[in-house]
Amino acid sequence: MTANTRNASTIKPQRAIGNDDFSLRRVPTDRRYGFWSMLLQWLSQSGSLSQFVLGATIGMGMTFRDAFIAFTLGGVILEIVIFLIGYAGQREGLSMTMLTRFTGFGRNGSALVSLIIAVSLIGWFGVQNGIFATSMQELAGGPVWLWCVLAGIVLTFLVVFGFKYMMWLARIAVPLFFGLIAWSVISTLAQHDFAELFTGEPTGPEITIPAAATIIAGGFMTGAIVAPDMTRFNRKGWHVVIQSSTSLVVSEYLVGLTGVVLGHLAGTSDVAGIVLSTSGAIGLIIVILATVKINDWNLYSSSLGVVNFARTVFGRRIHRGFVTLIIGILGTVLSAIGILDHFKEFLSVLGVAIPPIGGIIVAEYYLVRKLSAPLLRTRADGALPRTMPVWVPATLVIWVISFLVGFFVDWGIPAINSLLTALILYTICGHLGLLRSYGTVVLDEDASASSTADDTKENA
Known about the structure:
Elements: H1 3-9, H2 35-44, H3 49-59, H4 64-92, H5 96-140, H6 144-160, H7 163-189, H8 194-199, H9 209-219, H10 221-225, H11 228-231, H12 237-266, H13 271-277, H14 281-314, H15 320-336, H16 344-353, H17 355-368, H18 373-379, E1 387-391, H19 393-408, H20 414-431, E2 438-442, H21 448-459
Antiparallel strand pairs: 1-2
């Protein structure tokens, strides 16, 4: 038993406001949600103003028919990734960062994964918060920093109280968002000839189908990789494929292709501004709902990563609600002072490092099944394996190689290139017996007795 493990066993988990949401444990079967509740959560990720802008950008460079093909290709790629990784999360009831402990990375490798996920999503939380604030300034006036602070506070306290309250928000926000968007878009399009909009020629620089599919699949790949953070609350595996595919159909076809038509109409990618300018107060509500229902997941997944990182590196079990409060304040402050706008390129680089994690998880969980075997033996009891490897050096080498492929190879879709490279290399190494682990740590169940009591009380 390591020093960290011995010390951790004597430390009680911190009490804090909000819910810990089984951050270091399997989600018990009696704490999971039914089909329709989880479908709303999936749909809350499927529509956003940025998706309209994406559709319009693509529509400016290609015909509606070619855009349809591009969205189909991008959607199919995303659905395959989401289902394979999300199904693993559903079966095991574990978040993505916890899953990596037993699917190729080991304890210390999982800490590195958690750090990259946390930094990336905290950054994007702040960036999205800044975008929201700019939109609100244009619609309602006031300083950008004030809107950053207000939105950051609301989102932080929402996520502090966990998945249960995010679920209630989705039940309100999703129907309102899509209802208002439908009204606004239909009102805008009704003033024009539909046939002309669907058959119109692109007005901007030409975009090829592979290039468009790259933008579509690559843009949401990080969200696909962290799917277990949501699917661990699913009761049944088949729910995952139905819900995620429904979400993608809405996102790619309904929202994305509507953006294409609006792009043909406006001849600009700023269709969000056009739609909102015709909506008045309704446009204001749309902006608020769009931000809340998308950006809460950036903060939520980031908090899970920080909890796993702190537990692994410092041997301390920190309450997820407390973590959310700290990183929410950090992201809000950084967005308010505008510093994150200068780090978008860095965040994009981190985004290329995340897809190989998904490739390694899929390869280990479905094809190699060497390090993940203990998960199967302990699943029925709802417990975690008693031991896990400390280091798996070959996995880290594969991760680095796959990242370099995604970053430097221009052909194809970078996110898919890096993911497939990781999957292939890990599978080969697994069958050649090269995935040797170094060191074994005894898991003290992460203070599961206290954690169980806390989570049961909080989620009841």
